[in-house]
Amino acid sequence: VPQVQPRAEELSELYRELSQHPGLSTACLGPDLTTQYGGKYCSLYTEWSQRDLARAENIKFCRQYLIFHDGASIVYSGPAGTCSEIKDELLSRESPSGMLKAVLRKVPGKEKEKEKQFLEVWDQNRKVKSIDLTALDKHGSVYDDDQFGCLAWSHSETHLLYVAEKKRPKAESFFQSKAPELGTSDEDTGHPKKEDAPIKGEQFVYHEDWGETLSTRSVPVLCVLDIEGNSISVLEGIPEHLSPGQAFWSPEDTGVVFVGWWHDPFRLGLRHCTNRRSALFYVDLTGGRCELLSEDTRAVWSPRLSPDGCRIVYLENNVLGPHQQCSQLRMYDWYTKHTSTVLEAVPRQAWGAFPGIYCGALPGMCWAADSRRILLDTAQRSQQDVFVVDTATGTTTSLTADSPQGSWSVLTIDRDLLVARFSTPSCPPMLKVAVLPAAGHEAQTQWICLQDAPTVPGISWGIRTLQPPPEQEHPQYGGLDFDAILMRPSEGPAGQKPPLVVMPHGGPHSVFTAGWMLYPAALCRVGFAVLLVNYRGSLGFGQDSVASLPGNVGTQDVHDVQLCVERVLQEEMLDASRVALVGGSHGGFLACHLIGQFPDTYRACVVRNPVVNIASMVATTDIPDWCLTETGLPYKPDALPDPAQWTEMLHKSPIRYVDRVRAPVLLMLGEDDRRVPPKQGLEYYRALKARGVPTRLLWYPGNNHALAGVEAEADGFMNLALWLLKHLQ
């Protein structure tokens, strides 16, 4: 039997090489400057991230470029200098004029002091302000996440707006005995000042948080720094039942526009959940009056103000139901107070038509200079494309239809200079720039590559479409098809059939787009073919596909993956006797189902934080609504456990098929996972051990659901690859 058996040293060298390809995270265009000959140019600042295996951390670095343009096309572009590492920057934002930059920085505390946060203001050539937020003690730590966090300049460039944790009163034991500290007593009474006096009995009060990756976020407040006066104020007037975030200054700086999330009766996990009740609000800075700008029974996020200050676009979903859906694009007119729907949800994807919006957020800068068109990227089946949307007419045009197939993302657009990222399964991220053509001519967009990335040799890939057989059609949503991306080694001994690794995605309402993915690329280079399955329920295929899966998990998605595997084994030169499964989260749920329902197909299995038993997960996860929704049951916050519902959840769970499992299973669990708590994986581990199935468990402290820590990710790949090589011999 041909064997795929590189030694561990070769594997680690391969991983080291591929993991060094940097990811492109942000881009910012500087102001237009004019040369002495009348030509226009501007600088482009980019931030990249890269794994540093020696330091076991993700590092950030920046690189600058120059772009010479005549307003209609790019005349010349190229790098300006080399890259340099960015240390301890949590947030940064250039001012509207491009003349100033604000930076939120963390600074290690001296000796036993805790870490501090500083807000800095830089001009073109120096740091002009450095404000110790920790010492001012107006609030807790500043939010640097992309869920609530923001760092927004006022239009006048005199104030900065950000989100921080609300200051908690000091708490102490009932038995604390110490003299009041000097300088804290009230001049009139000699007693400690009321706001500084610690409260007894509050020491161990539980504070709800926002779940996975947001466990330090509980009560966000909006804060304003007056740059000239060096003073910070916490905004008043935001209703108690709301948690504010994603804020920016209103036109004329009269107040602040923000997204408010309801947190009554209790907080549910928010990460990757664009179905939480929320609305758009305006709070007036002078009177503290708070005004609702959108409907208050929906889920909204990503508000973006047009350059002329007249319109706000934002994304909107239904509340509850699938965590990710096909979203509506809505627009609020600041002066007429009228809200319109620019784009509706799309029931079915069709080539040549707009596929619908399936994105976690709009680009931070998404408006064209005409304040009429916006740019966005979205999944279109198994690829990701860039579209321009005319907000007045709702017409859409693809800017990447005639470009290479893969995964395109908008990084920024400013004065109609467009910056994007592009990658494919065999090509790491590269930086592309273009000038947005005039309205009506957008299809003529000319992309220029500003930072190339070397194509990784030895990987070929393609997308295939599959139609479920008639007996597996959805009764309500018939005629749905789905995709898979097949990557295979393009080099190898002639006539040798490579083994197959099957990878269904998590979610379940997410999607594999044809972009750069480290694990699949590395497995392909080891000698495995990799099948990435976008079963029915995936994003990018229309809302009908999303709606077809809840109530059918464990059957429809499982059958789609199995159909895909059987079809690929029939049609491709692959070794049907050496097939393995790899999956995380809902992908792990499917992998555990498949080795139980189709034990003859699979020889090995690797799962990362898998859902194993929906019935036992519902009481421990940060998203109990997911457990009910995907089982096909209604979610109500006040509903009590019901035996019939638990039976249904158990019935749809892979633990039900554990008696039939024969394939050796490797489990990887994140100790801090709040989404699918590690007790799920432990439950499966014990069930397998009790049945004599070969199993191994890796436990990663300090890692949550994504297992994205540099050390856990690297160790996870090595163990995964060695497990597959061992059991697919």
Automatic annotation (TrEMBL):
InterPro entries: 6-blade_b-propeller_TolB-like, AARE_N, AB_hydrolase_fold, Peptidase_S9_cat
UniProt catalytic activity: Cleavage of an N-acetyl or N-formyl amino acid from the N-terminus of a polypeptide
Domain Peptidase S9 prolyl oligopeptidase catalytic: from-to ranges: 522-728
Keywords on record: Cytoplasm, Hydrolase
MF terms (GO), sorted A to Z: omega peptidase activity; serine-type endopeptidase activity
Pfam families attached to this UniProt entry: APEH_N, Peptidase_S9
The enzyme's E.C. designation: 3.4.19.1
Region feature (Disordered): 174-196
Residue ranges of coiled coil: none
Claim: Hydrolase is one of the keywords in the record: yes
Domain of life: Eukaryota
Enzyme class: hydrolase
Domain (Acylamino-acid-releasing enzyme N-terminal) ranges: 11-447
Biological processes, Gene Ontology terms: proteolysis
GO cellular component terms listed in the entry, alphabetical order: cytoplasm
Keyword Lyase: no
Subcellular location: Cytoplasm
Family (UniProt): Belongs to the peptidase S9C family.
Assembly, per entry: Homotetramer.
Protein name: Acylamino-acid-releasing enzyme
Species the sequence originates in: Cardinalis cardinalis
